[in-house]
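Q: My labmate handed me this sequence with no annotations at all. I'd like to see what the chain might look like in three dimensions before we decide whether it's worth expressing. Could you predict it?
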Amino acid sequence: MKRVAIVLLACSDYESLEVSLACHAAYLPAQADLFVLQNCRGTYDAERSLAVGQRYARLFPGRIHVVTGNKPAKPYRAIAALLATRHLAAFDLVCKVDDDSFPIAPGWLDALVRGHAAAEAAGGPALAYVTPLINNNCWGFAET
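A: Here is what I predict for the chain of 144 residues:
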């Protein structure tokens, strides 16, 4: 099985991050590590979000990591900056999720990896976006 880095983009929604990390911790497959990319700092909510991520990193050492020190930027720039670092060098695939989305069943990541492999085998375009998660926000609730 390919090694997968789950990159969770976080900023200041500490309540959603708490729910999300609890679910990710419960369903984190053996071949995956989770990286919380803290993309803002300085406000009360941002610092609480950082504290939530750091608590989970202490609870799951070597499996959940918090990435700080990056300059806050548009999400695509923050993710590109992370991709350019050594943090993700050991991984074959990267799965980006938000702090307000979370898995609700085991096997979710394996299904994504199988879908990616099937798309590659079929010679189609690289898989760019899927939504196997339920968003913990007003859009996700309406869709559910």
